[in-house]
Every structure is written in C-alpha cells, then in structure tokens.
Amino acid sequence: MPPVFAHGALRLYLLALLESGPKHGYELIKALSGRFGGTYSPSAGTIYPRLGKLGEEGLVATHTEGRRTYYSITPEGLAELNSRRDELAGVENDISASIRRLADNLRQDIKVNMRGRRAELAATAEAARRNVDDMLVAD
Questions:
Q1: Which of 68, 66, 63, 26 minimizes the C-alpha distance to 47?
Q2: Does the predicted model carry a pTM greater than 0.90?
Q3: What percent of the chain has pLDDT over 70?
C-alpha cells in the first residue's frame, strides 16, 4: 500500500490541525482518523516523532498538563503554514480523492458480496422448497 501522505504532507497537515488550538497527540491521531473516515489511523510511532521534529524546528511548542503533553503551533509554525496554504489545499484534495476511492472500492465490494448472498439465498430457498415437496410426496 502506498504511503497515505506524500513526503512532508503529514507535517504540514499536523500544523493545520494545531492551528485551531493546542491538542495532545491522541487528539491529533483521532482527528486524522476522523478525517479519513476511520480508514486510516496513524500510529503513535508516526505522529510523535513528527511532532518532536516540528518542536525542534520551532514550529510547535509543548506544555504539559498532568500526564498529557499538549502541542500548539508557534508564530513560526503559523508563518510556515500560511506560506504553504496552496500545498495544504493539495493535501486536502488528495485526502478527499483517497476517501472517494476507498468509498468506491467499498461500494463495489458490497455489490459483489450482495450478489453472492442473493445467489446463496435463492439456492437455499430452492433447496427448502424441494425438501418440502419431498416431504409432501412421501406422506
């Protein structure tokens, strides 16, 4: 399976998710999963290293509350995000196209499975009719 995000696109998308306010890592994972309709859910091993790299680059700041670390976009991160809005729109388009492809494939799989189920039901109904006919003849 090809990567879900092109090189650097997840990094950009994380900045976009943080634009609306601070989030902890699990919130970001759930936001990504929700955006993909549950068909893609990045692992912690994918998200946290990228957040760490964004922090090293000064694009994301962290603060801790209890056991949770919250990530927020910095002014530098917002400047990068603003300078790459066109690229972000492309990422959004790619995500939408990916979701459409997944939905189309799912619809096709359901159609094929339904045809198979209908055939099985018809065969079962025919066998039941034959059994009833055989029992009636035997009486």
A1: 26
A2: no
A3: 94
